[in-house]
Amino acid sequence: MDTTKGFYLGIDIGGTKCAVVAGDSDFNIYQKVQFDTRTAERSWQEVFDEFFTNIDTLFLKYPKESLKGIGISCGGPLDSKMGMIYSPPNLPGWDNVPIVEIFAKKYGVPAAIQNDANACALAEWLMGAGKGTQNMIFLTFGTGMGSGLILNGQLYAGTNDLGGEVGHIRLADDGPVGFGKAGSFEGFCSGGGIARLAESYVINKLNQGGKVDFCNNIGSARKLTAKSVAEAAVAGDPDANEIIRVSGEYLGRGLSILIDILNPECIVIGSIYARNEELFKPHIERILLREAIPSAVKVCTIKPALLGDAIGDYAALCVALYEKQF
Distance between CA atoms of 157 and 93, rounded to whole angstroms? Predict the structure, then answer.
Protein backbone atom coordinates (compact mmCIF):
# COMPACT_ATOMS: atom_id res chain seq x y z
CA MET A 1 0.00 0.00 0.00
CA ASP A 2 1.18 3.51 -0.89
CA THR A 3 0.48 5.39 2.34
CA THR A 4 0.96 8.75 0.62
CA LYS A 5 -1.96 7.92 -1.64
CA GLY A 6 -4.28 7.01 1.19
CA PHE A 7 -7.06 4.48 1.34
CA TYR A 8 -10.84 4.28 1.63
CA LEU A 9 -13.26 2.11 3.59
CA GLY A 10 -16.32 0.45 2.10
CA ILE A 11 -19.08 -0.51 4.53
CA ASP A 12 -21.47 -3.14 3.12
CA ILE A 13 -24.60 -3.75 5.21
CA GLY A 14 -26.92 -6.66 4.48
CA GLY A 15 -29.64 -8.43 6.39
CA THR A 16 -27.51 -11.58 6.66
CA LYS A 17 -23.89 -10.49 6.19
CA CYS A 18 -21.91 -7.31 6.68
CA ALA A 19 -18.44 -6.49 5.44
CA VAL A 20 -15.83 -3.76 5.59
CA VAL A 21 -13.20 -3.45 2.87
CA ALA A 22 -10.10 -1.30 2.68
CA GLY A 23 -9.05 -0.21 -0.80
CA ASP A 24 -7.60 2.61 -2.86
CA SER A 25 -8.66 4.92 -5.67
CA ASP A 26 -7.31 2.47 -8.26
CA PHE A 27 -9.87 -0.11 -7.07
CA ASN A 28 -7.31 -2.30 -5.34
CA ILE A 29 -8.88 -4.15 -2.42
CA TYR A 30 -6.31 -4.50 0.37
CA GLN A 31 -8.38 -6.41 2.88
CA LYS A 32 -11.95 -7.52 3.56
CA VAL A 33 -13.52 -8.47 6.88
CA GLN A 34 -16.96 -10.11 6.89
CA PHE A 35 -19.30 -10.94 9.76
CA ASP A 36 -22.89 -12.02 10.39
CA THR A 37 -25.40 -9.19 10.88
CA ARG A 38 -27.57 -11.18 13.35
CA THR A 39 -30.43 -8.67 13.26
CA ALA A 40 -32.73 -10.89 15.34
CA GLU A 41 -30.51 -10.61 18.39
CA ARG A 42 -28.66 -7.33 17.94
CA SER A 43 -29.49 -3.65 17.67
CA TRP A 44 -27.95 -1.46 14.98
CA GLN A 45 -25.68 0.03 17.67
CA GLU A 46 -24.27 -3.43 18.39
CA VAL A 47 -23.70 -4.07 14.67
CA PHE A 48 -21.91 -0.71 14.43
CA ASP A 49 -19.73 -1.71 17.38
CA GLU A 50 -18.59 -4.77 15.42
CA PHE A 51 -17.82 -2.54 12.45
CA PHE A 52 -15.77 -0.25 14.71
CA THR A 53 -13.84 -3.21 16.15
CA ASN A 54 -13.01 -4.53 12.69
CA ILE A 55 -12.01 -1.09 11.44
CA ASP A 56 -9.73 -0.61 14.44
CA THR A 57 -8.09 -3.91 13.53
CA LEU A 58 -7.55 -2.67 9.97
CA PHE A 59 -5.89 0.44 11.35
CA LEU A 60 -3.16 -1.76 12.84
CA LYS A 61 -2.12 -2.50 9.26
CA TYR A 62 -3.31 0.57 7.37
CA PRO A 63 -2.62 3.84 9.23
CA LYS A 64 -5.71 5.75 10.33
CA GLU A 65 -4.21 9.06 9.24
CA SER A 66 -4.16 7.75 5.63
CA LEU A 67 -7.94 7.18 5.59
CA LYS A 68 -9.53 9.46 2.98
CA GLY A 69 -13.22 8.60 3.10
CA ILE A 70 -15.95 6.06 3.82
CA GLY A 71 -18.62 4.69 1.51
CA ILE A 72 -21.67 2.80 2.75
CA SER A 73 -23.92 0.44 0.78
CA CYS A 74 -27.21 -0.61 2.37
CA GLY A 75 -30.67 -1.69 1.31
CA GLY A 76 -33.30 1.05 1.37
CA PRO A 77 -35.32 2.93 2.21
CA LEU A 78 -32.70 5.53 3.02
CA ASP A 79 -31.87 9.18 2.41
CA SER A 80 -28.50 9.61 0.73
CA LYS A 81 -28.56 13.40 1.15
CA MET A 82 -29.28 13.32 4.88
CA GLY A 83 -27.25 10.14 5.43
CA MET A 84 -30.12 8.32 7.14
CA ILE A 85 -31.36 4.71 7.11
CA TYR A 86 -35.15 4.38 7.37
CA SER A 87 -36.36 0.93 8.44
CA PRO A 88 -35.18 -1.43 5.67
CA PRO A 89 -37.31 -4.61 5.69
CA ASN A 90 -34.21 -6.80 6.11
CA LEU A 91 -32.92 -4.71 9.03
CA PRO A 92 -35.67 -4.67 11.67
CA GLY A 93 -35.25 -1.95 14.26
CA TRP A 94 -32.98 0.20 12.08
CA ASP A 95 -35.30 3.19 12.32
CA ASN A 96 -34.00 6.70 11.56
CA VAL A 97 -30.34 5.74 11.90
CA PRO A 98 -27.98 8.70 11.20
CA ILE A 99 -25.27 6.39 9.88
CA VAL A 100 -23.27 8.90 7.82
CA GLU A 101 -22.98 11.35 10.70
CA ILE A 102 -21.91 8.56 13.08
CA PHE A 103 -19.12 7.23 10.84
CA ALA A 104 -17.96 10.65 9.69
CA LYS A 105 -17.66 11.96 13.24
CA LYS A 106 -15.98 8.84 14.57
CA TYR A 107 -13.26 8.75 11.92
CA GLY A 108 -13.01 12.42 10.95
CA VAL A 109 -13.38 11.85 7.19
CA PRO A 110 -16.18 12.36 4.65
CA ALA A 111 -18.75 9.56 4.54
CA ALA A 112 -21.57 8.83 2.09
CA ILE A 113 -24.32 6.27 1.65
CA GLN A 114 -26.23 4.83 -1.31
CA ASN A 115 -28.75 2.03 -1.59
CA ASP A 116 -27.20 -1.25 -2.66
CA ALA A 117 -28.45 -1.12 -6.27
CA ASN A 118 -27.01 2.38 -6.75
CA ALA A 119 -23.74 1.30 -5.16
CA CYS A 120 -23.49 -1.66 -7.53
CA ALA A 121 -24.30 0.64 -10.45
CA LEU A 122 -21.40 2.87 -9.45
CA ALA A 123 -19.08 -0.13 -9.33
CA GLU A 124 -20.06 -1.37 -12.79
CA TRP A 125 -19.81 2.19 -14.14
CA LEU A 126 -16.48 3.14 -12.59
CA MET A 127 -14.68 -0.15 -13.16
CA GLY A 128 -16.96 -2.72 -14.78
CA ALA A 129 -19.03 -3.26 -17.91
CA GLY A 130 -20.20 0.36 -18.07
CA LYS A 131 -16.80 1.98 -17.70
CA GLY A 132 -16.36 4.96 -20.01
CA THR A 133 -20.08 5.59 -20.60
CA GLN A 134 -22.05 8.72 -19.76
CA ASN A 135 -25.51 7.12 -19.68
CA MET A 136 -25.81 3.65 -18.18
CA ILE A 137 -28.52 1.58 -16.53
CA PHE A 138 -27.62 -1.21 -14.12
CA LEU A 139 -30.18 -3.94 -13.37
CA THR A 140 -29.60 -6.39 -10.55
CA PHE A 141 -31.81 -9.25 -11.88
CA GLY A 142 -31.08 -11.29 -8.75
CA THR A 143 -33.39 -12.02 -5.84
CA GLY A 144 -35.27 -8.93 -6.96
CA MET A 145 -35.08 -6.44 -9.81
CA GLY A 146 -33.25 -3.35 -8.58
CA SER A 147 -31.73 -0.64 -10.70
CA GLY A 148 -29.14 2.12 -10.62
CA LEU A 149 -29.07 4.99 -13.13
CA ILE A 150 -26.03 6.86 -14.40
CA LEU A 151 -27.27 9.87 -16.39
CA ASN A 152 -25.03 12.48 -18.00
CA GLY A 153 -22.04 11.12 -16.14
CA GLN A 154 -23.59 11.21 -12.67
CA LEU A 155 -25.56 8.89 -10.42
CA TYR A 156 -29.26 9.74 -10.51
CA ALA A 157 -31.03 8.82 -7.27
CA GLY A 158 -34.21 10.87 -7.69
CA THR A 159 -35.88 13.31 -5.31
CA ASN A 160 -35.92 10.94 -2.33
CA ASP A 161 -33.73 8.02 -3.43
CA LEU A 162 -36.49 6.23 -5.32
CA GLY A 163 -35.10 6.90 -8.79
CA GLY A 164 -34.69 3.70 -10.76
CA GLU A 165 -37.24 1.50 -8.98
CA VAL A 166 -37.95 -0.21 -12.30
CA GLY A 167 -39.01 -3.48 -10.68
CA HIS A 168 -42.29 -1.78 -9.77
CA ILE A 169 -43.30 -1.19 -13.41
CA ARG A 170 -46.34 -3.27 -14.32
CA LEU A 171 -45.73 -5.12 -17.58
CA ALA A 172 -48.89 -7.26 -17.61
CA ASP A 173 -52.33 -7.28 -16.00
CA ASP A 174 -51.46 -10.51 -14.22
CA GLY A 175 -48.42 -12.66 -13.56
CA PRO A 176 -45.90 -13.46 -10.84
CA VAL A 177 -45.86 -11.01 -7.96
CA GLY A 178 -42.78 -8.87 -7.49
CA PHE A 179 -42.41 -5.59 -5.62
CA GLY A 180 -45.90 -6.31 -4.21
CA LYS A 181 -47.47 -6.08 -7.67
CA ALA A 182 -48.69 -8.92 -9.91
CA GLY A 183 -47.32 -8.76 -13.45
CA SER A 184 -44.49 -6.41 -12.50
CA PHE A 185 -41.04 -6.22 -14.08
CA GLU A 186 -39.62 -7.81 -10.91
CA GLY A 187 -42.34 -10.46 -11.00
CA PHE A 188 -41.22 -11.70 -14.40
CA CYS A 189 -37.51 -10.91 -14.12
CA SER A 190 -36.05 -11.94 -10.78
CA GLY A 191 -35.02 -15.12 -9.05
CA GLY A 192 -38.22 -15.33 -7.05
CA GLY A 193 -40.32 -14.32 -10.03
CA ILE A 194 -38.90 -17.00 -12.32
CA ALA A 195 -39.43 -19.60 -9.59
CA ARG A 196 -43.10 -18.59 -9.27
CA LEU A 197 -43.49 -18.48 -13.05
CA ALA A 198 -42.03 -22.01 -13.29
CA GLU A 199 -44.21 -23.32 -10.47
CA SER A 200 -47.38 -22.03 -12.13
CA TYR A 201 -46.36 -23.32 -15.57
CA VAL A 202 -45.43 -26.82 -14.37
CA ILE A 203 -48.48 -27.27 -12.13
CA ASN A 204 -50.84 -26.14 -14.89
CA LYS A 205 -49.28 -28.55 -17.38
CA LEU A 206 -49.30 -31.48 -14.94
CA ASN A 207 -52.93 -30.81 -13.99
CA GLN A 208 -53.85 -30.96 -17.67
CA GLY A 209 -52.26 -34.39 -17.96
CA GLY A 210 -49.04 -33.22 -19.54
CA LYS A 211 -45.50 -34.26 -18.77
CA VAL A 212 -42.60 -32.08 -17.68
CA ASP A 213 -39.29 -33.92 -17.84
CA PHE A 214 -37.28 -31.65 -15.57
CA CYS A 215 -40.00 -31.55 -12.89
CA ASN A 216 -42.44 -34.46 -12.76
CA ASN A 217 -44.62 -33.72 -9.72
CA ILE A 218 -46.39 -30.82 -8.02
CA GLY A 219 -44.32 -31.11 -4.84
CA SER A 220 -41.12 -30.59 -6.81
CA ALA A 221 -42.72 -27.72 -8.74
CA ARG A 222 -43.14 -25.80 -5.50
CA LYS A 223 -39.39 -26.10 -4.88
CA LEU A 224 -38.19 -24.87 -8.28
CA THR A 225 -35.64 -22.09 -8.42
CA ALA A 226 -34.38 -19.82 -11.19
CA LYS A 227 -31.13 -21.79 -11.07
CA SER A 228 -32.80 -25.17 -11.57
CA VAL A 229 -34.90 -23.80 -14.44
CA ALA A 230 -31.83 -22.30 -16.13
CA GLU A 231 -29.86 -25.53 -15.74
CA ALA A 232 -32.69 -27.50 -17.34
CA ALA A 233 -32.93 -24.95 -20.15
CA VAL A 234 -29.20 -25.20 -20.85
CA ALA A 235 -29.62 -28.99 -21.00
CA GLY A 236 -32.25 -28.50 -23.70
CA ASP A 237 -35.49 -29.12 -21.80
CA PRO A 238 -38.30 -27.56 -23.89
CA ASP A 239 -40.50 -26.63 -20.92
CA ALA A 240 -37.64 -24.93 -19.08
CA ASN A 241 -36.81 -23.03 -22.26
CA GLU A 242 -40.44 -21.95 -22.56
CA ILE A 243 -40.30 -20.51 -19.02
CA ILE A 244 -37.09 -18.69 -19.90
CA ARG A 245 -38.73 -17.40 -23.09
CA VAL A 246 -41.53 -15.80 -21.09
CA SER A 247 -39.12 -14.17 -18.64
CA GLY A 248 -36.82 -13.10 -21.47
CA GLU A 249 -39.62 -11.49 -23.47
CA TYR A 250 -40.78 -9.50 -20.46
CA LEU A 251 -37.17 -8.52 -19.83
CA GLY A 252 -37.14 -7.24 -23.41
CA ARG A 253 -40.34 -5.26 -22.77
CA GLY A 254 -38.89 -3.70 -19.66
CA LEU A 255 -35.67 -2.82 -21.45
CA SER A 256 -37.66 -1.29 -24.31
CA ILE A 257 -39.37 1.09 -21.90
CA LEU A 258 -36.06 2.09 -20.33
CA ILE A 259 -34.38 2.59 -23.70
CA ASP A 260 -37.24 4.70 -25.02
CA ILE A 261 -37.32 6.92 -21.93
CA LEU A 262 -33.63 7.23 -21.01
CA ASN A 263 -31.76 6.58 -24.29
CA PRO A 264 -28.76 4.93 -22.56
CA GLU A 265 -25.44 3.93 -24.09
CA CYS A 266 -25.56 0.59 -22.32
CA ILE A 267 -27.64 -1.48 -19.96
CA VAL A 268 -25.64 -3.70 -17.64
CA ILE A 269 -27.52 -6.68 -16.21
CA GLY A 270 -26.23 -8.73 -13.31
CA SER A 271 -26.73 -12.04 -11.55
CA ILE A 272 -29.18 -14.35 -13.37
CA TYR A 273 -28.71 -12.67 -16.75
CA ALA A 274 -24.94 -12.44 -16.42
CA ARG A 275 -24.75 -16.18 -15.75
CA ASN A 276 -27.22 -17.13 -18.51
CA GLU A 277 -26.84 -14.50 -21.23
CA GLU A 278 -27.12 -17.05 -24.04
CA LEU A 279 -30.58 -18.10 -22.80
CA PHE A 280 -32.07 -14.61 -22.54
CA LYS A 281 -30.33 -12.64 -25.28
CA PRO A 282 -32.29 -13.94 -28.32
CA HIS A 283 -35.63 -13.13 -26.65
CA ILE A 284 -34.45 -9.66 -25.62
CA GLU A 285 -33.21 -8.82 -29.10
CA ARG A 286 -36.45 -9.98 -30.72
CA ILE A 287 -38.58 -7.82 -28.43
CA LEU A 288 -36.32 -4.77 -28.70
CA LEU A 289 -36.61 -4.86 -32.48
CA ARG A 290 -40.38 -4.92 -32.16
CA GLU A 291 -40.97 -2.54 -29.25
CA ALA A 292 -38.22 0.06 -28.88
CA ILE A 293 -37.26 3.11 -30.96
CA PRO A 294 -34.82 1.70 -33.54
CA SER A 295 -32.34 4.58 -33.40
CA ALA A 296 -32.24 4.31 -29.58
CA VAL A 297 -31.69 0.54 -29.73
CA LYS A 298 -28.89 1.06 -32.24
CA VAL A 299 -26.77 3.09 -29.80
CA CYS A 300 -27.48 0.91 -26.73
CA THR A 301 -25.48 -2.19 -25.87
CA ILE A 302 -26.92 -4.80 -23.51
CA LYS A 303 -24.07 -6.23 -21.44
CA PRO A 304 -23.71 -8.81 -18.69
CA ALA A 305 -22.27 -7.37 -15.48
CA LEU A 306 -18.51 -7.76 -15.35
CA LEU A 307 -17.79 -7.85 -11.62
CA GLY A 308 -19.82 -10.95 -10.79
CA ASP A 309 -19.80 -12.09 -7.18
CA ALA A 310 -17.06 -9.56 -6.37
CA ILE A 311 -19.37 -6.61 -6.97
CA GLY A 312 -20.28 -6.38 -3.29
CA ASP A 313 -16.62 -5.94 -2.39
CA TYR A 314 -16.35 -2.92 -4.68
CA ALA A 315 -19.80 -1.33 -4.42
CA ALA A 316 -19.43 0.42 -1.07
CA LEU A 317 -15.85 1.39 -1.88
CA CYS A 318 -17.09 3.00 -5.10
CA VAL A 319 -19.61 5.06 -3.09
CA ALA A 320 -16.67 6.63 -1.27
CA LEU A 321 -14.69 7.16 -4.50
CA TYR A 322 -17.71 8.66 -6.26
CA GLU A 323 -18.32 11.06 -3.38
CA LYS A 324 -14.67 12.12 -3.47
CA GLN A 325 -14.59 12.59 -7.25
CA PHE A 326 -17.98 14.18 -7.88
Answer: 24
